[in-house]
TrEMBL record:
Pfam families: PDZ_2 (PF13180), Trypsin_2 (PF13365). It comes from Deinococcus ruber. This is PDZ domain-containing protein. GO terms for molecular function: serine-type endopeptidase activity. Residues 209-297 form the PDZ domain. It comes from the Bacteria. GO terms for cellular component: periplasmic space.
Length: 309
C-alpha cells in the first residue's frame, strides 16, 4: 500500500526555484561588494580589501618591498605603499592616496552552518561559497569552508547579507581558507596606521614545559619535565611552564617571578600548550595580567604589567 504525497512537501519545482533565488541573492551580494575588492600587484597577484578612503588590507607574506601597485574594480592602476605589517596576523596595511574607497559594514562571526562568501580579485572578481565552522582554537581565525583559489588571500569574507566578516588567508593552514575576523583586522589596521607596527607584549622569562600526572593534585605532586601523553592528556595531564630564566629589569622580575616557579595559567585560563603563554601575551603590550604560579608546592597569583617590544 502506497501513501499519497503530503501536500506540505515541496515539489521539485519549488526546490529548484529556491536554489535559483539563493543563487541570484549570492550573486547580487558579490556584485554589491565587488568595488571593495582590489588586485594587489606584488611579486605575485593577490587580493586586497578596501577598508577606508585610502586604505587597503591585504596579506603581508605575499609582499616584497614597500612600494607596489593596486588595480581597482574599474581598472585603475594606483600607486600604493605599505604603511605597516603585522607578522602575527599576517596582515599588511596599504595606503593608496587616489583610491577614494569606502568603509565596509561589518558583522560578528556567524553561527556554524551559515552560508558565507569568499571574494577575491587576483585579476577578475572570483567567488567561493562556504559554510561557517568553528574558529581555530589557537588563533580565533574563522573557518570558512570555502574552496581556496589562487590569489584569494587578502580578499573579503562576507555574510550572505554582504557584511564584512574577515580578511581571507589561504596560506595559514594548508588546504584551508581561513579569515582574520573583521573586528580584529580593523583594530590591527588602526594600530598599523598610527604606529606602523603592532607592539609585542613582553614578559621576560625563559621557560621549560612540564606536565603533571592527570590524576594528581599539582600542589602535592612534582611536575615531570619533558613527558606528556598524546595531546598533553592521558597519563600526563596538566601543563605548566617552569621558569628557567628571568631577564634583568624585565616585567617578570619587577613582578617577583623567580627561577623555579611554575606558570600554570594566565588571567584564569590554563595554558593550552607550551607556546600558549607567548601567544597570549604578545597581543597585550602594556596590559596588566594575572599569572597563577606554583612556588614551593603552593599556588599563588602574581600581577604583571607586560612590557612592549
Amino acid at each position: 500500500m502506497t501513501s499519497e504525497p503530503s501536500n506540505n512537501e515541496p515539489s521539485s519545482t519549488d526546490t529548484t526555484q529556491d536554489f535559483a533565488r539563493l543563487s541570484a541573492a549570492l550573486a547580487d551580494t558579490a556584485e554589491r561588494a565587488s568595488a571593495g575588492v582590489v588586485t594587489v600587484l606584488g611579486y605575485r597577484r593577490i587580493s586586497g580589501t578596501v577598508i577606508g578612503a585610502q586604505q587597503v588590507l591585504t596579506i603581508a607574506h605575499a609582499l616584497h618591498g614597500d612600494e607596489l601597485t593596486v588595480r581597482t574594480h574599474d581598472g585603475r592602476e594606483l600607486s600604493a605603499s605599505v604603511t605597516g605589517r603585522d607578522p602575527v596576523s599576517d596582515l599588511a596595511l596599504l595606503t593608496v592616496p587616489d583610491l577614494n574607497g569606502s568603509t565596509p559594514s561589518t558583522a560578528a562571526p556567524m553561527r556554524v552552518g551559515e552560508l558565507l562568501l569568499a571574494l577575491g580579485r587576483p585579476d577578475a572578481l572570483q567567488a567561493s561559497l562556504g559554510m561557517a565552522g568553528q574558529p581555530t582554537p589557537a588563533t580565533g581565525w574563522l573557518a570558512t569552508g570555502a574552496q581556496p583559489f589562487r590569489g584569494v588571500s587578502g580578499g573579503m569574507l562576507l555574510s550572505a547579507q554582504g557584511a564584512l566578516l574577515g580578511i581571507l588567508n589561504a596560506g595559514a593552514m594548508r588546504g584551508q581558507l581561513l579569515a582574520v575576523p573583521a573586528e580584529t583586522a580593523l583594530k590591527i589596521a588602526g594600530v598599523l596606521a598610527e604606529k606602523g607596527h603592532l607592539p609585542q607584549g613582553f614578559l621576560g622569562v625563559g621557560t621549560q614545559p612540564v606536565h603533571f600526572p592527570a590524576d594528581a593534585d599539582s600542589q602535592s605532586s612534582a611536575p615531570q619535565e619533558g613527558r606528556r601523553g598524546r595531546g598533553g592528556r592521558g597519563r600526563w595531564g596538566r601543563l605548566g611552564l617552569t621558569v628557567v630564566r628571568v631577564e634583568d629589569s624585565s616585567p617578570a622580575q619587577t613582578a617577583g617571578l623567580k627561577v623555579g616557579d611554575v606558570l600554570l595559567a594566565l588571567d584564569g585560563a590554563a595554558l593550552r600548550h607550551p607556546g600558549a603563554l607567548h601567544e597570549d601575551i604578545r597581543r597585550r603590550a602594556g596590559e596588566t595580567v594575572t599569572l597563577r604560579v606554583l612556588r614551593g608546592g603552593e599556588e599563588q597569583e602574581l600581577s604583571v604589567t607586560l612590557g612592549e617590544r
